[in-house]
Design a protein that fits this description.
single chain; alpha/beta; eight-stranded mixed sheet; two-stranded antiparallel sheet; 10 helices; 36% helix; globular
Length: 284
């Protein structure tokens, strides 16, 4: 395979950012367009993470596609307008990165040729970006992802986010966390995601509130196909079970495939294997 690392001067992020592109050993013939697989890393990772953890060389031999791996800091692949000069990753992804890839590499822009998959934080990113622009992707891969519980916030919908932040920091144990023991209460990162919006209702209306967005997209009949994988020992397993139940309630279970691994935790080896299963299942 061929590996290209690109230093990209993003006008939206207002900073240079890197991404890595993997190309098949045999370069596309003139006029040939290849399928595009967008791989989103987990928290603490970057555009090189999959080079060290995923069996990409075997995947590249098996699947004739272009693999694009962006770096997103710890942004959840979403917009943070109040960070510095603004770090709006989802805007960058759709408005700069995707057009650049299609213009520079032999990647097909057709929906049926684009597949978005992520692990952990990247699994949330794949779900969020895929629901924002479902017409762009044939299938989403959601591996061991936090899906952002939001029901507990609805009684505070009219509250200003700054006031909610002050209240939560006074006693974090009042609010649940998805990242550890319930006794620890809401984590700072979770609080940052919520309070980057002006009000709690604004968060509930945002792409970050997955439980609100999923039924909306499903009701329009616009869902891409979705592959969800999680281990029973993963912190995010309860959310996966709830998502499966909601899919059945909404009548969209035919658009989704759930892979539950008994006794498996938040495991990079499991995610590596499931990325391959995702590619196989959708015949990339």
């Amino acid at each position: 395979m061929h590996i290209a690392t690109v230093r990209f001067e993003s006008h939206i992020l207002f900073m240079p950012t890197d991404f890595t592109v993997l190309l098949p050993e045999r370069i596309a013939a003139k006029g040939e367009k290849l399928k595009a697989v967008w791989l989103l890393h987990g928290a603490g990772g970057d555009h090189r993470s999959f080079l060290y953890t995923a069996n990409l060389e075997n995947m590249m031999r098996k699947h004739r596609a272009i693999f694009v791996m962006p770096a997103a800091l710890n942004s959840d692949f979403s917009n943070y307008e109040q960070f510095g000069t603004g770090y709006c990753f989802s805007d960058y992804f759709f408005e700069e990165l995707m057009p650049f890839i299609y213009a520079t590499f032999p990647a097909s822009p057709a929906r049926e040729d684009n597949f978005l998959v992520g692990i952990s934080m990247g699994g949330f990113g794949a779900f969020s970006l895929g629901l924002q622009k479902p017409e762009r992707f044939e299938a989403l891969g959601v591996m061991g992802a936090s899906l952002r519980e939001s029901e507990y916030l609805k009684p505070y919908a009219d509250m200003d986010s700054a006031a909610f932040r002050r209240m939560a920091l006074t006693n974090r144990k009042v609010f649940p966390t998805e990242y550890g023991s319930p006794d620890e209460g809401i984590k700072l990162k979770e609080l940052n995601v919520i309070t980057k919006y002006q009000t709690i209702q604004d968060f509930l209306d945002s792409p970050d509130a997955m439980w609100e967005r999923f039924p909306e997209v499903a009701s329009r009949g616009a869902l891409p196909r979705i592959y969800v994988a999680c281990g029973t020992e993963d912190l995010f397993y309860p959310g996966t079970v709830r998502l499966q139940r909601l899919a059945n309630e909404l009548g969209v279970e035919d658009r989704m495939r759930f892979k539950i691994a008994e006794g498996v935790g938040h495991s990079g080896a499991f995610f590596d294997e499931e990325i391959g299963c995702f590619l196989d299942f959708y015949e990339v």
